[in-house]
Amino acid sequence: MNDRIISNLPGQADTEKGTLKEVKATCCYCGVGCGVIVQSDGKQVVGVRGDPDHPANFGRLCTKGSTLHLTARPALQQQARALYPELRTTRNSLRKQVSWDETMDFIARKFVGTIREHGPDSVGFYISGQLLTEDYYVFNKLAKGLIGTNNVDTNSRLCMSSAVAGYKQTLGTDAPPACYEDFEHAQVIFIVGANPAYAHPVLYRRIEEARRKNPSMKIIAADPRRTDTAREADLFLPILPGTDVALFNGMLHICMQEALIDPAYIDAHTEGFAELKNTLADYVPKVVAEICGISEEDLFRAARWFGESKASLSLYCQGLNQSSSGTAKNAALVNLHLATHQIGRPGAGPFSLTGQPNAMGGREVGGMANIISAHRELANPGHRAEVARLWGVDEVPAKPGKTAVEMFEAVNRGEIKILWIACTNPAQSMPEQKLVREALKKAELVIVQEAYKTTATVDYADVLLPATTWSEKEGTVTNSERRITRFKPVLSKPGEAMHDWEIVIDFARRYERLSGREKSIFPYKTPEEIWNEHRESTRGRDLDITGLSYKILEEQGPQQWPFPEGASSGRKRLYEDGAFPTPSGRARFVSTVFKPVAEPVDIRYPFHMLTGRLRDQWHGMSRTGTVAQLFSHAAEPAVVLSQEDMEKSLIKQGELVHVTSRRGTQIFTAMAGDDMRAGQAFIGMHWGEEYVSGRGYKGEGTYGVNALTCPAIDPSSRQPELKHAAVRILKAELPWRFLVFGWVDEARVLTLQAQLRPFMRRFAYASCTLFGRDKVGVVFRVADDYAAPTELIAEIEAMFGIAGSNVLRYDDIKRGKTRHLLINDDKLAAVSLCGDLSAETWLKEYLEGGQSIAALGRLLLMPSSKAPAGFKSRGRIVCNCLNVSESEIANFLVAQDEVNHGMPEVLLAGVKEKLKCGTNCGSCVPELKKMILLHKAGKAA
Known about the structure:
By secondary structure, the protein is α/β, with parallel strands linked by helices. The strands form 9 sheets. It has a 7-stranded mixed β-sheet, sandwiched between helices. The radius of gyration is 28 Å and the shape is globular.
């Protein structure tokens, strides 16, 4: 049957193939903003692939994006999704399903009464960079225009606010000046505080392609860890945590010393350079090298490459932003670009990589506590008056609102009585989890507007408002290069869920009626009407989009701003004319001074704990955590240490350790990593209470990695120092271990995880993750000081189906060792191990491989951990797309040694051709290269 186009809009074509329909949308993960083509049968999403016409990705997707359809499976949706409103009227009662009318009337009455008694600043809104621009706009208008409080902030405060502040201090406004096309023009790419090989894989593919086309391109990577990105750089600067300002100042000092700056550009287009020069005098190379922990030779090489290049492009992310001196780091890097005139030209510029899919859109509409619509300043009376006129209100309040950390502190003090949380999970993502959770308990009313009822924050909700999510929403998002994409829904709203903007407008109209407002300022019936008002707010501003419309975005595809009325296209890169949106029209140098991390290590807390992204997971994993195969690359919560520190502390691979900061303790599995420097530890930012927990001190519970992170905030951006904390690491002396894993019906796998969560708090340590590919399994792992009662173990086993006549049992009560195996159709279906877990590897691989156990006989129950003859572990999965393991790659490389001694690029081509790994999304290619180099080094040794 021929494809039938049912929409005549080429930029947004819906195609029916038989009974299947294809719709263009965007990926809902990082800020790259990849276009996707979603295939559905009208009831469910059945497939997804990259959109070859989308200028952000040209058809490429990473492991996360390419598995998006798996997150929308009906069986998982029924378990994970919030599908109807829930309400509890007293703090100790359970939430009950109620109607939307009852729920929204209740909230509106609460708001009116609380504000009448305590004033508008007694309420707060904590929203998300995953909302659409239209959602963001109405939340901002609701808080600042209707209610009259600036207490509206976003989880973008946790990731992008230092980049915002740095751009504004130096360039005059929050506008990334470069674009993705600049990768192809750059001669030097300086990657600092970012690991795009993991966090922005599709952009990293573009960098790889640019290097292939331009072999003379140089890449410099500055990072405390030798990440996959750093490993592939021409120059790796393993700087100590938090020393970025010293590095940039030192590089600029050298550029000045060696006449690599552009005095004519500085004189014509900038101001403040004289003051900066005085500051830079202190950053002599020897001192900077000592501060940063790098060699003077490498510092000089980095400065010369950057300054001598015809086009130097910087890429940076949370390593700069999540810091108590994040704004200074951003500004110091922009200083380096301005002084060398590496800005406003193809291939040059300071390019902040956005973490969330629409953090940029949220910034555009003023969805943060210190800004208002269209990059206007809250502190500027004229700006407030302009927005008030547009909104039809008397005024926008002048008092700054509470930012993310401050908001939860205010709730904890009782200043904010009502907290409305939308599309974010602060009970996982905020620093100092103990304070955050105390605040959520103390609030008079917690409203959670959320698509997923499985997040930790939902447990604290007095009101749960079910919202739509990816594949169901309609509107726009803006990616890292200022490109706006318009998309339509693929599926209808599930259950009683409503769009985020609809929920806000419904509430706003009820609030208006109860508070006596005669005419509504929320007249919208469609997201387009909201967007049109946002568009008008940008007229004459730096991000002017008055030349755009939904129709243009549909017909011509995604467009970059600015795109003013009368323009035929958006602007690829900014400041090509040397004019900046400052009062003088000049860019401003900022005199940046290096300050150490907020928590320096000491004798009590001797390790630098770093956090960052894993390759195949995203944020709090409320979405990626539903896809079993995305756990195969990093199967369980772990802290990564250097081999030197493991040996010094007598910690073996896979042992449990206490990681303790000044705020709390969490137990993790210890793993050795060749990317780690001695004295440093790395933990994935994703591991919250949903996946790793424990009994904690006095039974109060532990909450994952953010029980440890530092709440110190940057004085300008108010962004917390989530990237770094000082910790101590000690072996966890927990002699009793229990492990159970097995296949679970997909229709109850997430339900089982939720049921296990209360059990996790009964043990000193517990983790719960998924495994599998075509089938889904759950792994539940615990450790404690003493053996748990047999009744408790039996209760947990029964949840995995380990009960009845199909269970083979070995019990050594005296030694506290048991092995219980559920057998279905001559295959392992579930396994429970108590005391001795040494048979875990081969039993789990037998289960995953679906191999017959008939030939194993008594070996299944023998106390020995010895694996069956001929068993070889597959090891960790390297290529998630095609399920290729470490052992398969290693075996191929050994076989190649017998044939030839190929160069690394030849071996890489051979691995791709033979095993197909690296040929789909390419996310595993850096790791393949690493394995090849280590193999060749081993042969040489």
